Amino acid sequence: MSSEIHVVAIITPVAGKEPRLREVLQSLAENVQKNEPGVLKYHFFEQYNSASGTNVFVVEEMYKDEEAAAAHGSSDHFVEAKKVLGGEGLLAAPLDVKMIKPVFGFSSR
């Protein structure tokens, strides 16, 4: 059994603040890539609903183990990003973080 930790996070921006949120998230992703070797995947996606004009960001995360996941959550850049998200009122809803586990299927060929 793998010790990898899989996470999906849903981030809902306040309407009109998507560009600033995108900046904060991109900076966070760059810091994670540079400074956290235990993070195996940190991939952002954006869902956009043109009918309602709303969007959400979806993050796929994979950590080498529980220690790497814990280190990410307490890293300076993650803590700072959370402060900015709250301080600048960028979120329309609380972060929705789900710990998940693979059940079947494949990720590459």
Automatic annotation (TrEMBL):
Domain of life: Eukaryota
Name of the featured protein: ABM domain-containing protein
Pfam families: ABM
Domain spans labelled ABM: 5-104
